[in-house]
Amino acid sequence: MERDSEFDPAGGDATGISLPRLPLPELDEPGAIARYLCGEGLPGEFPFLSSAYPEMYLDPEDGSKPQEEPTRLFAGLGTAEETNARFHLLTKSQKSHRLSTAFDGPTLYGMDSDADGVFGKIGEGGVAVDTVEDMERLFDGFDLSDPQTSVSMTINGPAPTIMAMYVAAAKRRFGPNVEKVLRGTVQADILKEVQGQNEVLFPVASSLRFLLDMMEYSVSHFPKWYPISISGYHISQAGATPVQQAAYTLSNGFSYADMMREQGVAVDVFAPRLSFFFDCGVDVEFIALSRVCRKIWAIGMREVFGGDNRSQLLKMHTQTSGRSLVSAEFKNNLTRTALEMMMAYMNATNSCHSNSADEPFTTPSEEYVKLASHGQSILLEESGLFRHMMNGLSGSPGMKAVERAVESEILKEFAEIERLGGVLGAMEHRYQRSQIQAASYRYEQQILSGERRVIGLNRYADSNDAELPSVVRVTDAVKLKQLERVRAFKMKNKEAAAEALDGLSQVVENGGNVFAQLVETVEVCSLGQITERLQRDVGIFRPMI
Amino acid sequence: MGCSDLASEPLRILTAVPLCDGHDSAVMAVNQALILQGYEVVYLGYHRSVQDIVRAAIQEDVVAVGISSYNGGHLEFFREVVELLEVKGRCDIGVFGGGGGTITPADVVLMKSYGVDEIFLAGTSFEFIDERLRELYGGGRDRAECELEIANDDRGLAMVLSSVGSLEIDRKKWVRGSAKVIGFTGPGGAGKSTLIDEWVRGYLADHPVGRVAILTHDPSSMERGGLLADRASMVYAQDDRVFMRSLATRGRQGGFAPSTEVCLRVLASVAAGFDHVLVETVGTGQEALPFENSVIDTKVLVLHPEYGARVQLQKILMMDSADVVVLNKTDWASAARAVEEVAHQISLSNEGEVRLYQTQASEHGNVGVTELRKDLLG
Ligand code: B12
């Protein structure tokens, strides 16, 4: 089997041998070739098992552009200024600026830094963002209109408000036309919040309405933005098996597609603006898991939704597994992450976050974040594995066996979800949550019994090795600064805010696009004020256990 | 008195995850492990404030509170819980917890110095947790003064309720007050808790004064341990104007716990002073008639549209003795048919005495729930 290769044969490093950029199986029988093309697909071709694009790890939109690194490290601590400094540190030697924002607990729950009982959590585990002014500070010094800059924001319950702050902040700096060129993604995946991450602020129906308003607005106003990142990571970290992660995430994705279609948005308008986020752990299923997801998604989007080539593409970010990292003899976490990162790239992930070795303890320290980032460079730049070949690891008998097994298990989960009335029906039965919790309990039991081997914890543990890294914490002075800042903002805008909030309530009531209104509201209202008002209007989410 | 035979009863603890924290994987695993060891775990859920935790601990009269914290700020949070318990006169309630690697050994020293009993670091086995908790809390404790006669605050009332399980109460002391007692029953998954919580939300919003008590039930597993998790989803009921108590069935069949009737008598008394007492059974089967021998004024049967074929309705004995039937989850596709069938069934069984409401309790300010509230208040 041959293919007109648009690519130069690549050279191996050590011996200088010549390698094909795109090695193909040695097949001459027509049936086998057809099976290969339909089952596996060439890189960048249906069903995209090999990869989403013919050439990975380059700017996919335009081959002539300089390389955009797939490395995207999640960062956030303290106030906007501290996080901004971390962003600059992380991207200083990169060609592109791929920023990924972690928010602190109060922000994730839509609260202000001056709310009762949150002081200790300000800026811990992520950055505190209360207002549009914080958002401006956060991206200070980054050109948000530059095609080499993209911003990811891990925020869900309050995603529409935070996204509105991002848009408003970008407009303040770069003018109204910046809308057209904003690149990046906001997580906003509320279904997996109900199932795994627990950051839902409003009843499900209202949460979905706010989300759909934002997605609709985004696809028509921000053509380069991904208004949702359909995430399996949190489902997986909550304890799901790899198959559960894939099945629940894909079914959530298909639900969103359904909802957008019901809103009257054409599939080829919204589908290319959906993106995905997966977890990659040490288990063997991960060798092929997200490849299979790409295939199932492509088939679903083509056959059920009638989407075109671009709509069929599942684009994904991968994060290595935090839960696989343990505190006992924590430096082993470097090796675990290296292994997971390699599997993530074997699955041709579009971008990747590698965890730091101090993950079990703290927001990563500079020391370990540097190792995590260099780990990626070693894999992608120093090693020849992904530099010389497009699909060097595709199609091996073992890989195929895992693909088949995983695929059939995912389809079984689909059938069960369908039986329970689809994703929303299954959610009401607590199906996903109870499945995940059972798997999580099993996982912990297996570690405690030694059935699941964890080196340094239940095997080869060295009682003399009790070394712990130092933890990164935010000082009270920094917390106080943030608290006072949001107070001052609210004081300054007191009257305007009251009026803006009433305006927002009106839109909620009369069925208008809430996101369009939020872009105005955030000019004078804080996150907490907006959350409170919306909860008064539509209610509070009742958590499920 | 009732407090002394604690050692033979299941250990009752409360668990929760702090405000602005949704890491519930660890606490759910710990809950599960402890239930299997025979604990009754009242689970308050995630994203919970110090006030909510302390209020629940006092009302539920647990021996200790376990907190699972991951998003930082544990030094402040645990301290505030310890301090507020003290302010509220229940410094005898223990405080323990965990948070994997985010709580360092140095933090633990500090936390213990201000009154936290134990922190379980990453990698601790469930067996060890169980052993340590029994060591700390298994022997009964010197409880804050138990004044059985005076139930004029939640603290006293909660302790009275703990004692009635093993103590015949003096009926003369617990004279029936003006509280209206409303019983909710129905199959599991009908949405009873949500309905009650939505009811409470409206009550609190419309009535500036007055208090409500809620008595909920959850099944014990193997007649011992149990997860009592109604509080986790009843968010509006976590309020100073609501007194809530969760009971495990402890082997009793039919929907209630061994001490339910006596608890109801106490809650409905003049001394307790509530306007309304709402009692929720565990999810019941078709033959259940849980309210037969208790002081219930209004019996509410809650159904959801997926009860199966029409003949299943005829088998529900409560249909004949309910005052109010609620068909919840009317947003489900099967609701239209269900409304008709239930209405028909009611007309057959109770000569038109039963009031039927259609609700969608998960909807904020649902019209059906509002009508039901007016009916039950009136
Ligand atoms: C799983 C996980 C998640 C999952 C949580 C899923 C869920 N539903 O629980 C997801 C992916 C959703 C998640 C999200 C976030 N996470 Co997280 N997460 C973790 C992770 C990987 C494991 C925690 C865990 O559950 N372990 C399993 C338990 C069973 O084991 P254990 O922790 O060792 O606990 C033992 C004991 O301590 C004890 N124990 C624990 N609690 C209790 C309680 C009681 C009562 C008892 C008796 C015992 C006990 O039991 C265990 C038995 O041995 C840790 C890192 C790590 N490797 O530890 C980060 C970690 C906790 N997360 C972190 C952060 C920052 C977040 C986010 C804020 C990120 C963001 N900005 O968006 C969000 C917040 C989510 C939210 N809603 O609050 C940070 C916290 C940093 C800090 N405090 O400084 C950590 C440390 C990672 C890191 N280094 O950045 N996370």
From TrEMBL, chain A:
Keywords: Isomerase. It comes from the Bacteria. One of its GO terms (molecular function) is methylmalonyl-CoA mutase activity. It holds the Pfam family MM_CoA_mutase. Residues 39-539 form the Methylmalonyl-CoA mutase alpha/beta chain catalytic domain. The keyword Isomerase applies. Residues 1-24 are annotated as: Disordered. This is Methylmalonyl-CoA mutase alpha/beta chain catalytic domain-containing protein. It comes from Rubritalea profundi. The lineage of its organism: Bacteria, Pseudomonadati, Verrucomicrobiota, Verrucomicrobiia, Verrucomicrobiales.
TrEMBL record, chain B:
Keywords: Chaperone, Cobalamin, Cobalt, GTP-binding, Hydrolase, Isomerase, Metal-binding, Nucleotide-binding. Gene3D superfamilies: Cobalamin-binding domain (3.40.50.280), P-loop containing nucleotide triphosphate hydrolases (3.40.50.300). Pfam families: B12-binding, MeaB. SUPFAM superfamilies: Cobalamin (vitamin B12)-binding domain (SSF52242), P-loop containing nucleoside triphosphate hydrolases (SSF52540). The keyword Membrane does not apply. InterPro entries: Acid_CoA_mut_C (IPR006159), Cobalamin-bd (IPR006158), Cobalamin-bd_sf (IPR036724), GTPase/Isobutyryl-CoA_mutase (IPR052040), P-loop_NTPase (IPR027417). The keyword Cell membrane does not apply. Residues 10-143 form the B12-binding domain. It comes from Rubritalea profundi. It comes from the Bacteria. Its cofactor is adenosylcob(III)alamin. GO terms for molecular function: cobalamin binding; GTP binding; hydrolase activity; isomerase activity; metal ion binding. This is B12-binding domain-containing protein.
